[in-house]
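seq:
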Amino acid sequence: MAGATPTHNFIVADEEHYRTFNVVSTPVSGTRTISVSLGSGFPSHYSTALDNALARYNGYGLKINFQRVSSGGNIVITGANLGTSGGGCILGQAAGFPSSSGNPSPGFTLSTSSCATTYLNTVDKADEVMAHEIGHCIGFRHTDYKRRASCGRGPGESAGSIGAVHIPGTPTNVNGSYNSWMMACTNGSPSFGAADVTALNYVY
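struct:
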């Protein structure tokens, strides 16, 4: 993402937009509602951030619709100290990707480490991380997974058994400053780029 440094990393996981082999199953007509709950112990602005992230997804008229619930969501957000990786601060970590039965990953962890909470000190930054991790839960890979260009020099990620399927209509050439909600490292902005919307609408 634009302005990213190697010090704020997401962990999951040519540069285009990619999805996993499995995606969330949706009905032939209508939408599928996915509930999301935020665990306790987070700063109050995280609640606003989650509401904003879900509203942004829902604003695109997708075949999936997100609904906030107080507990026990299909996607549950928990907190734990995720520490660092490669000298960088880990902000969030997805529990996985959609299952072969078409359900979203059961959730993700937001780091409670001091370096993470110091960075995630605004609604927009917390929103950005939550939207990114929700993206993994519904089957999106890092846009720059092959080279993690947004994080600076370093190894990329393997397609592995989960797959990395190119999403038609998305750019075939991106760099470290490319604006996408699924770049491996942050730029502090929660907005979805035009190609992100193309990817979301193609898959859902």
